[in-house]
Structure formats: structure tokens, C-alpha cells
Amino acid sequence: MARGGPGDLITAVSATDSPATNDWSGGPLYLAMMAGLIGMSTREIVMLDAGLSRTRWPLILASGALATYYAVRTVVFLGAGPRGDVFTTWFGTPSTTLITLVLLVVVSFSMASLSGEQVAKMFAARAATSRQELVDGGGVQLRLLPQSVPDLPGYGAAGTCVPAVR
């Protein structure tokens, strides 16, 4: 049996709230779920290892502010209603659009910065691997060198300039 998701829940609640005449049907549930889910994403970012990335602070602040905004928007929606002056002035479509735009800019720059950090870490890991390979290769070469000078004719002259004799 298929389990219903948040979309199914909002659809069911909205259907009982006269969607033909109420353009905010299911609005309280939608706003509460937005606040809750964005709040949980903020918690997940906070729980990340602090040394993992420097770019997490703008994300924490932006998503925390957005979760708070949606929580207050939910309370104002329930208290003043969707047509109330406080809701339409401070929490209506224009202000929400502006806040969402700011969030989009913060997230875009944070993702670009995070991508740059990941590339830098990848190159550092490759450099460490290459350095270790050079050290290992040098050790192999040292082990291949003879430990004593062999008693072979001409061995002592190897690598020296010997004039040609006519």
C-alpha cells in the first residue's frame, strides 16, 4: 500500500477548506510545514562537523531566519487571517518573495563557495598522494642502488668523461 506524503496531506486538508472559494485553503498546514521542515534543515546544517566547511554559517543564518519567518507567518496567519492588515503588509506575497530572493542569493553563493572548498580539498588530497608516491619511489630507488662498489672493469669510470683514444 502506498504511503501518502506531505503533498497528499496538504491536498486532503485543503479539500476540506473550500478550495474553490478560499485561495488560502490548507494555508496553516502549509506554513507550519514550511517552518518545521526548514527548521529541521537548519538543525542538520548545525549538526555538521564544524571543520567540514566555513560556508555553513551563512546557510545556518539564512535557513534559521527563514524558518523563524515562516513560524511567525503561521502565527500571524492564524491570528489575523490571510486578509488581515498585519499578514498582508508584513507576511504577504511581496515580502515573502523578497525574503525568498535573498535566500536564493545566499544559497547560490554558499554553494559556489562550498564547491570551491571541495575542489581545493580534492587537489590537496591528490598532492598528498603524489608526494607520498614520490617518497615511496625514492625509497625504491635507494634500495636498488648497490650497497658496495662491484669489482667490475670500467665500473669506476661509469659516468665520467673518458677521452677517446686514436
SSE string, helices as H and strands as E: HHHHH
What portion of the residues fall into strands of 2 or more residues? Answer: under 5%
- The rounded Rg comes to 33 Å
Cα distance, first to last residue?
99 Å
Oligomeric assembly: single chain
Annotation, overall tally of beta strands: 0
Indicate the mean pLDDT.
Answer: 83
Major sheet description: none
Contiguous runs where pLDDT drops below 50 for at least 5 residues: none
Can you tag this structure with a few keywords?
166 residues, mainly alpha, 0% strand, transmembrane, transmembrane helix, membrane
Secondary structure layout plus pairing:
Elements: H1 6-15, H2 27-47, H3 56-80, H4 85-90, H5 93-144
Helix pairs in contact: 1-2, 2-3, 3-5
Write a compact overview of the structure shown:
Keywords: Membrane, Transmembrane, Transmembrane helix. This protein is 69% helix and 0% strand.
Provide a descriptive summary of the structure in words.
By secondary structure, this protein is mainly alpha-helical. It contains 5 helices and no strands. α3 (56-80) runs antiparallel to α5 (93-144). The longest helix is centred in the C-terminal third of the chain and has 52 residues, at 93-144. The model has no long low-confidence stretch (mean pLDDT 83).
